[in-house]
Fold Phosphotransferase.
Amino acid sequence: MASPLLAETQSIVKQFEFTDDDVNKSVREFLRQMDEGLEKDGTSLSQIPTYVTGVPTGKEKGLYMAVDLGGTNFRVCSVKLNGDTTFNITSDKVAVPKELMVAKKAEDLFAFLAQQIKKFLEKHHGDHFEAHIRRRMTVSSPDGYKDEHVFRMGFTFSFPVQQVGINKGTLIRWTKGFDIPDAVGKDVCALLQTEIDKLHLPVKVAALVNDTVGTLMAHSYSSPGSQGSILGAIFGTGTNGAYLEKLSNLKKPLVGEYDTSTGDMVINTEWGSFDNQLNVLPNTPWDAALDKETPNPGFQMYEKRVSGMFLGELLRLVINDLMKKPDVSLFRDENSSTNDRRSTTDIAETSGIWKAWGVDTSILSHAAGDHTPKLSVLRETLQETLQISAPAFEDAQAFKAIAEAIGRRAARLAAVAIGAVVLKSGRLADPERADDTVNVGVDGSLVENYPYFEDMIYEALRAIEGIGEEGAKRIRIGLAQDGSGVGAALIALVAAGAEKNAPTEEILSELRQEARATAATAAVSDESDQVGATHSA
Ligand code: ADP
Ligand code: MG
């Protein structure tokens, strides 16, 4: 006879089912919302043009720099693209000091960032750095200072910006604990360039980069023999995707300058907010409860069902509800004889299970990955991470079943976005590409670590009309590591390419002029600055 716990668990699992029909209905709605976003502003999928007009082939070559200002860290790297789909990367990471996150002036934060770039150059590119400084001091020869001696740098900036050019974008608002009102409305690339110039560093901020675009570029570069990837997708703290769209499909007005020769543009979908109106997204009582707990109820509704920041909390809410049911015994024993450990289960008061956001999504991975006959691994994890002592086998079974239902629904929802973009690309239906692989790059702890996440995505892809068994076989999902390093470097390269079409002479003479001015100043008084730049550690 089924226990009340088992019966309740089965009923919950059922509520998290997302059928093949649901998947197909959602794909159609996703495509509709994609088109809507290409036509006008203010839609649920923002479909933001990135001014990146092509993806790499793997043949790109050169030495580029990349920096990444995320929520907590600032990462500086140099990337050597070898031109054969491989690369070498050198990187340093520092925590952004808390006081700078709320600095009075934008300058304070950006000066700190420039300092880190300087330190990085001195440490890892000393030769280049010193030669550069020397050249700046000896501009009497016309060749003394050349554009190509300047590192092109991609700037990954993970805050909302209104991008108006490949290296131009104004900050809309700060998130993730940053608050420097002075910077809002300003061009973040210019803010950084100004501070770089004050230190006379041989660096040009060539591109402003979104992390999904970086993922797309990095994956495209390293996928051998491909015509490039069509999508870069993140399933980490949040979820988002960037894909290659035909310029002709982009109906809303596009300000600023961009290269039209490829006929394509990478679009940042901001798909975390897909279907905020809940036309097709599932909405269990726990989804609704979770949404209410967030600072932005009604927004990012897709993300709240898919990404790492939310799945642990969803599971916590379900488990709490289940524990409250009088006839269900979950993490609770009549006496030690009803527990296969011959003990009684106890949950510490300090357990994360009692606190909103107290359960990390990684426990879903532990649950899904435990195939031991008595679920001893999961029970150990429950004990260690949630201070649930002596959980019974039945408890762990129920916990695992619910966690898997939530994880499986997330993966099937992820397949909706991926499947829709694949269909939108037209690649599967193109008779000239009938044998080609369709590459999709993914990144993020969830897709990287959740067992079978990718397999569950494929299972749903096979069920999508227009993809099917045959189509799914041609879709190759691959991890794109170092999106914010390699990807940003590649975008800097694309940007540098676009510069060449621009008046190179103008850039050169501008730089020469600037170098002359700098050298003149240095010669008159500011020796210490130059010496310091060359020799300080
Ligand atoms: P970010 O999105 O900030 O770049 P990550 O890609 O590392 O960072 O994603 C972090 C998110 O992934 C967090 O929400 C965390 O709970 C979740 N996460 C971390 N480890 C795992 C895991 N093993 N399984 C599932 N989710 C995980
Ligand atoms: Mg990330």
